[in-house]
Write a structure and sequence with these properties.
Blueprint: E1 3-4, H1 7-28, H2 35-49, E2 51-53, E3 65-69, E4 72-78, E5 81-88, E6 93-99, E7 110-116, E8 126-132, E9 140-146, E10 165-166, E11 185-189, E12 195-200, E13 204-209, E14 214-216, E15 234-237, E16 242-247, E17 250-257, E18 262-268, E19 282-286, E20 289-293, E21 305-310, E22 315-322, E23 331-334, E24 340-344, E25 357-361, H3 369-383, H4 392-401
Protein name: Kelch motif family protein
InterPro entries: Gal_Oxase/kelch_b-propeller, Kelch-typ_b-propeller, Kelch_1
Length: about 400
């Protein structure tokens, strides 16, 4: 087991923070009391202070799969990378968990959390399922019984803990059907959380029994989308049998009836973007919003934009905030306490694999009236200009800006 620290990186981050604070103070010496200047101030502060630059990943990773468990974020492999790590959100350190078997070449695989103890337990034990592959790349279906690599308790005596092993009867998802699961997306659902919903190319959604790993025969399993080759899309679980799929710029509501094993679809408003085709983005569900980070279009243009879909009002919009850099094939995941969103790895605008790791305060993206003053208080605190007091124009300007 390897423990990785990056003190030199943290020193550079602190130096950058100090430089940014100095720049803000210089900025504040200018005329800023007018409304337009206050808006400019917010725009400036938003660009430099809302991202927390965390220690670099142990190696460059893209197309990775992540799972949040208590104070950990598990990173399970990536594009051509078989390493699995745990990142401790409090210690801000990485530890290696294991490796995928050497004969497996990962490319657009999928990892989900199947079952396990509640994260409130002292050392939760969970089961992870990993699957993927196609006719061109060796298919795999593995499970891992994970126990925290950060635990100070005695070493587990359970066999095959923290390693990928084959499932019962060596069943491989997608093999008998010839499914291409590269870039597939999956969610665990059903009334008893015993069903695996998988969306994959060309335009299919399937249901798999997690107890037997057998496909369930369903009705209406072809997705009503225009794209012919569905992959690297978004698939979000709203409830045990309700989902939203984001493919290119299309948004589809999906409902599954467990009694008659039938899918029902609803065409929702398209994502608001200048791109004609939109894919390979990071996404997550936070409260009643779906957040989409980065991505690319048909011309392979990489974006730093952040989009948000309001599930309740069925509306898309592009946020004023942007990523620190344009990214594609990165992963977005919320911390267990829902305070931060982590943006992990990915490829930059030159399609070079990155080892970057950022954390974003959730309330910077999903704002309510109650949180506006909290944001300004945070800005004031981190740049240490206590000589400025609160003025009523701040609330008005922030409300207009966001």
């Amino acid at each position: 087991m390897v423990q990785i620290k990056n003190e030199s990186k943290q020193e550079k981050i602190n130096q950058l923070r100090n430089k940014q604070e100095s720049e803000v103070l210089d900025f504040l010496n200018k005329e800023w009391t007018k409304k337009d200047n206050i808006l400019q101030l917010f725009s400036y502060l938003e660009r430099i202070s809302w991202f927390d630059y965390l220690p670099d990943l142990p190696l460059e990773l893209s197309m990775m799969q992540c799972i949040a468990i208590k104070d950990e974020i598990l990173m399970c492999g990536g594009d051509g990378r078989n390493f699995c790590y745990s990142y401790h959100t409090t210690k801000r350190e990485y530890r290696q968990i294991c490796l995928y078997p050497w004969e497996i070449q990962l490319w657009g695989h999928t990892v989900v959390r199947c079952e396990g103890e509640d994260d409130k337990s002292k050392n939760p034990k969970v089961t992870l399922l990993s699957f993927g592959g196609s006719d061109r790349r060796r298919r795999h279906t593995f499970i891992m019984h994970y126990e925290s690599v950060w635990s100070t308790d005695s070493v587990s005596t359970t066999a095959h803990t923290n390693e990928w092993i084959e499932v019962q009867d060596k069943i491989i998802i997608g093999a008998s059907n010839g499914h291409n699961l590269t870039g597939a997306r999956a969610c665990v659902g059903g009334k008893h959380n015993n069903l695996l919903f998988v969306t994959h190319c060309p335009r299919n959604i399937n249901v798999i029994n997690l107890q037997t790993y057998e496909y369930i025969q369903t009705i209406n399993s072809t997705l009503p989308i225009h794209t012919y080759w569905l992959c690297y899309h978004g698939f979000v679980k709203l409830s045990t049998t309700n989902f939203i799929l984001i493919s290119d710029v299309e948004t589809i509501g999906i409902t599954y009836d467990e009694c008659d094993r039938t899918f029902h679809f609803q065409i929702l408003p398209n994502i608001t973007t200048s791109f004609s085709i939109f894919s390979n983005f990071a996404y997550l569900l936070l409260d009643n919003y779906i957040l989409v980070f980065g991505g690319k279009c048909a011309s392979s243009t990489i974006t730093d934009a952040i989009h948000v879909y309001n599930v309740r009002h069925k509306q898309w919009r592009q946020l004023a905030q942007i990523l620190p850099k344009a990214l594609v094939d990165c992963y977005a995941i919320a911390s267990h306490d829902q305070d931060f969103i982590h943006i992990i790895g990915g490829d930059n605008h030159k399609l070079k694999c990155q080892n970057s790791h950022y954390a974003i305060r959730c309330y910077y993206l999903i704002l309510t009236k109650e949180k506006i003053k909290m944001i300004i208080d945070y800005w004031i605190r981190i740049i240490s200009f206590n000589r400025l007091g609160w003025i009523k124009e701040f609330v008005t300007c922030v409300a207009e800006y966001v």
